[in-house]
Amino acid sequence: MPADSLEVDLDRILRRLDDLWAIGSTDRGGVTRLAYSEAENEAFEYLRSELSDAYSVREDAIGNLFASRRPDADRSVHLGSHLDSVYNGGRLDGTLGVVAALEAIEAVNASDRSPAYPPTLAVFRGEESARFGQHTIGSRGALGMLTVEAFSATDENDVPLWLAMQRAGFRPRNLSEPTIDLDRVTAFLELHIEQGRVLDEASDRVGVVTSIRAPVRYRATVRGADDHSGATPMALRQDALAAAGEMIARIETIATEAAADGDLVATVGDVTAVEGAINKVCGEVTFPIDVRSNELAYRERIEDEIVSALESIAARRGLDLDLERIDRSEPVDLDETVIETLDAAAGSVGTASRRLPSGGGHDAMNFRLAGVPTGMLFVPSVDGISHNPREETPETAIRDATATLAEALTAID
Amino acid sequence: MPADSLEVDLDRILRRLDDLWAIGSTDRGGVTRLAYSEAENEAFEYLRSELSDAYSVREDAIGNLFASRRPDADRSVHLGSHLDSVYNGGRLDGTLGVVAALEAIEAVNASDRSPAYPPTLAVFRGEESARFGQHTIGSRGALGMLTVEAFSATDENDVPLWLAMQRAGFRPRNLSEPTIDLDRVTAFLELHIEQGRVLDEASDRVGVVTSIRAPVRYRATVRGADDHSGATPMALRQDALAAAGEMIARIETIATEAAADGDLVATVGDVTAVEGAINKVCGEVTFPIDVRSNELAYRERIEDEIVSALESIAARRGLDLDLERIDRSEPVDLDETVIETLDAAAGSVGTASRRLPSGGGHDAMNFRLAGVPTGMLFVPSVDGISHNPREETPETAIRDATATLAEALTAID
User: What distances in angstroms separate CA B266 from CA A192, A376, B133, B193, B218, one per listed residue?
Assistant: First the structure.
């Protein structure tokens, strides 16, 4: 590491991760800190208690927290992530991004470097869709992007998001008005676990995110005829499950071939045999399809290929196929200048890094959509595991990625 | 129809079917008459009320009913079926076999024919496994074949079979002792709906059953790795659901090819994606496999072929595959002499008939296993539908099959 490198205190990072790991812990070995729950409130209080008096702290109308040592600065680089979790989630998703951002700011502050744009720690509410079926609630709200639909979404007890916000002590008002002054945000940076296997398989410590894949999603329903498994000859069957099996395997084949020519993943992650039984030919099967790419045109080409393949399988078998498109989001390219800054920062830290797309959405995505120059760093997820108590990242990667984030803070000009 | 043919009263059959259709009727349009339920008791009482005083009626220790006009005869042809149903079952499964048997006996009695062996109506309890997970309880009990395991099986309220029998008013004792004198049973005949599509597709009215297919059954569990659907490149996946899809389609292909060379059906009628979700690569999938044939050696050959195919799919993909064999029953050939008698009887009635194997098990199967010359007649299931309120058989087929049964009664010597 270069002699003038910034000092990252790994022990302090790990202590803060441990402290947050105890908030909302479950008897299944993980944490449950849902959006606008008591546990999320407690995590925000903890974080506030870790900030020295040198920080000026602001809480916005929906509970996001912004902290800066230089609140008077005209422009500031914002960095951070979220503190909520899925049901029985892990130690790192979101939380690491907040703790690492704070450590990067403190490392810069403790050095003799003087960044062009003083940093602001940004901590968001409710990034996970676990409670309300709505993702990135806090960052969308901060950017004035929260729709009325999202605001009215309910949890499993039929509590709408707006009421949950009020009960947690906040007073949301004009949804379309950002809670932060975008003109004063020079850039947005987020560090996050990869939630995939790319860095872990490649033994890289830091990933620089180039783009965020977005999904087009379908719900497929295949209809044939229910029959007795023993009494119905093979030739007389209209077997919806055998057809679905062929379709699911075909989607994998198409996606695997497409991944050789461009950025693409396609997945069937669930299946339901309607009234299935061991002694029946199954007459109806449904399954979801999730196709993602960071190139919209390429995704649309493969989407068409999958749809035609499924339709021809159904037609050949004489079955009904219903394909309902249930989601269609647009991929986001991150800012090339910020990507180069992060690449250079990783280089100056001397860590093994690579560029890669993000498979899932993150708070950073919304800043990019709002026109803010945005970058993301990934750290490896051991075995690709996330949304799970077994979520893990090597400590060396946490240290190097945090140092990279600190270097980037001083490099943005 | 020949001039001396036996007179079957179709209206009386339909009235009795209507009367029984009202017993245990559900608000979902079907009937629920489970083994040893109030509804099953009521159906037995109804049937008893339809027997004239000329019948001598005997109820055995587990509630089966035997009725004959000639209880003094040395030997008797037994014929009948069951009165219980699955949950929300149809009008004909079992019930038609009882009503048709009674009608055949009455047709013979009203004629000037004198059968060599006077008929006995046999009505069995609990043929369906709906309540206790145990099939053909009544006929197994009548033949001394009820195991202690079956006898202790419980329903969804943890009531064991033996207690349910007691609560229904019966006093089962020595399980291994038949409740009927097998030396006095010349033959056993059962008429039943096909529960498949063969007769309906061929427009035949009567089927003569040659054999009863028996299943070998597995529960397959495929294990890979749970991953994020957006973040995991195709090449790094261990997708248990894509593997299961390929396996399910392959089983269908193997069975379809095997059906060209011998009697064989193989089915995957259900599938469970463990913790499946639209945004996951699914790490664990289970599905049952049901392989049936009336030729044991052939079934074993195809079973081996399926097992190897699945193992090689799992090996190529680097996934774990667990194949647990959960059932292994032996196919039963019905009695050739009785088959020929039934064939000739159908011919004398002048109806379109064909020989076919039975896909499912029936009370008749147990008589064959007990060494009694046994035969079965099938009537078409419209669209192959059974275990469903939409169960239907053309009235002409009901009439012709009942007449065939009556003809056979007078022909057995």
Answer: 48, 51, 21, 21, 11
